[in-house]
Amino acid sequence: MTDEAGPWLVVGLGNPGREYAGNRHNVGFMVADLLAARVGGRFGRHKRAVAEVAEGRLGFGGPKLVLAKPLTYMNLSGGPVAGLAQFHKVSPGRVIAIHDELDIDYGQVRVKCGGGEGGHNGLRSMSKSLGTKDYVRVRFGIGRPPGRQDPADYVLSDFPAAERKELEFLVDRAADVVESVVTRGVEPTQNLYHGA
């Protein structure tokens, strides 16, 4: 079913609106913005889906990327993603979700295909709308909240100053991981990046 010459749908998960822009929950948007800059794409409102979309190729004549930032709130991300997958004829195996991950320490970026959603509402919505969990996830570690802070408050707070010093480097690394998944595959990418 997968068209090897077809595009990849790369979805940055986050919440729309300026007030959320620096939140931990919006790191997917940050990585999508960097990828768009790398491929020379500019985000614009999609005509069929509630999302901003940018398109470009990795390198000269390389794989086509359809980069998306759903404009619904996080817990409703799946509808726009499924709409874009249908519009661009992308099978779930060529969908990559970039998201924040509480269960991974800050500073770590991990990739996997399928599996549970770990309580992440954006992933849960995507799995429901796509009808499968078998899509790729690039997981950007944000660590657990300190003390008794509610995880919901934690993900909707901005990165603190100490973490912001590394943030640009880590967003860059996450973008590298996405490109590696597209060009090399999930397992080679795990071998390349998970030890680092």
From TrEMBL:
It catalyses: an N-acyl-L-alpha-aminoacyl-tRNA + H2O = an N-acyl-L-amino acid + a tRNA + H(+). The record marks 100 as: Stabilizes the basic form of H active site to accept a proton. TRNA binds at residues 20, 73, 75, 121. Its EC number is 3.1.1.29. GO terms for molecular function: peptidyl-tRNA hydrolase activity. It is an enzyme of class 3 (hydrolase). Keywords: Cytoplasm, Hydrolase, RNA-binding, tRNA-binding. The active site is at residue 25. It is found in: Cytoplasm. Pfam families: Pept_tRNA_hydro. It comes from the Bacteria. The record marks 15 as: Discriminates between blocked and unblocked aminoacyl-tRNA. CDD domains: PTH. InterPro entries: Pept_tRNA_hydro, Pept_tRNA_hydro_CS, Pept_tRNA_hydro_sf. Gene3D superfamilies: Peptidyl-tRNA hydrolase. The keyword Zinc-finger does not apply. PANTHER family: PEPTIDYL-TRNA HYDROLASE. Monomer. Belongs to the PTH family. Hydrolyzes ribosome-free peptidyl-tRNAs (with 1 or more amino acids incorporated), which drop off the ribosome during protein synthesis, or as a result of ribosome stalling. HAMAP family: Pept_tRNA_hydro_bact. This is Peptidyl-tRNA hydrolase. It comes from Micromonospora rubida. The gene is pth.
